[in-house]
Design a protein that fits this description.
2 copies of one chain form a homodimer. With 182 residues, chain A is mostly helical. Chain A has 9 helices and no strands. In chain A, α5 runs parallel beside α8 and α8 runs antiparallel to α9. The longest helix of chain A is centred in the first third of the chain and has 23 residues. Chains A and B meet through α1, α6, α7, α8 and α9 of A and α1, α6, α7, α8 and α9 of B.
Chain lengths: 182, 182
């Protein structure tokens, strides 16, 4: 059942407004600077509205990333083709303004925050893992490594260069992970 | 020439004290919580002492990481052996308490901070790049990708699991990057 905000806005509309304001705040202020106060102000909602829906900034960022990154893209008939489409889509989405910085920030925070790791593992990682296991038919341990390699590499590149990865490096990355699934 | 602090402590001793306090603060408080104030208090020095040496927290973290991670380990006679020793050493050092969180935090901050990216590129990355290019004799673009893959993967794993990567996954990672150098 859909709940309404006090102002009568449907849940999905409020989410869209908040997620857009979250990515905009991260883009303009960096992950650390995008506090719940600043995100609430950017979204034009009360901070209590945010906390009613998300218990912490980490929880909000995770839901925002799930929305921004969307389901795993697995186009094609062969394992190699599906893997290639998943990596290219991940590269494009992580390169969108605010997404990479939010992604890197929440993973960095999670190193010292077991509650946030739990949210990341169950809400963010588990659904991708299930879909990839079903499609690629390789052991879970290997899928987890491929996810670390793809996401970690793209984020590290963004951190050192401030820019998404160029196409030729995405090609080389695809070659590397393809070898890991054979 | 070595400069002394007002208290007469040699520069290298002060660095060691501050770096130890930095990693301890990151371990206990997380990257965001380890402010210059908290690091100064943990090291038992005045905040102005820190700012005389490091213009920003990012600059301090980078110097701390250079000290903690040390020079690239390139043991062995073949390219494959040298690469393997470099990856195993990187995995062990990133797994040391506080180091991974400091590393991930500074890269995450750098996405929105061009000054910090400049420090990371010139002080942190460039020396490793030069040594790896000389030893492995492959094009710079390929070395940069391998560095992103190794560091990014290890950090992403730490963020999602809170623990360093297990040996069997380090072996698989070595296999992946070895293929990229052929």
């Amino acid at each position: 059942m859909q709940k309404s905000t006090p102002a009568g806005r449907p849940r999905s509309d409020l989410n869209a407004t908040v997620f857009e304001a979250t990515l905009r705040s991260v883009r303009e202020l960096g992950y650390a600077g995008a506090t719940m106060d600043r995100i609430a102000a950017a979204a034009g909602v009360a901070k209590t509205t945010l906390y009613r829906r998300w218990p912490s900034k980490g929880a909000l960022i995770v839901d925002c990333l799930i929305d921004a990154i969307g389901p795993a893209a697995l186009e094609g008939d062969t394992r190699a083709e599906m893997l290639e489409s998943a990596v290219r889509t991940a590269a494009a989405r992580i390169g969108e303004p605010g997404v990479g910085a939010a992604f890197a920030g929440v993973f960095s925070d999670a190193i010292n925050d077991p509650d946030l790791r739990e949210i990341l593992t169950t809400r963010f990682q588990a659904p991708y893992l299930a879909v990839l296991k079903e499609a690629l038919r390789v052991p879970e341990q290997r899928i987890l490594l491929v996810v670390d390699v793809v996401a970690g590499t793209l984020l590290h590149r963004l951190g050192i260069s401030g820019r998404p990865m160029v196409e030729s490096d995405v090609d080389a990355l695809i070659g590397m992970v393809r070898g890991a699934l054979d």
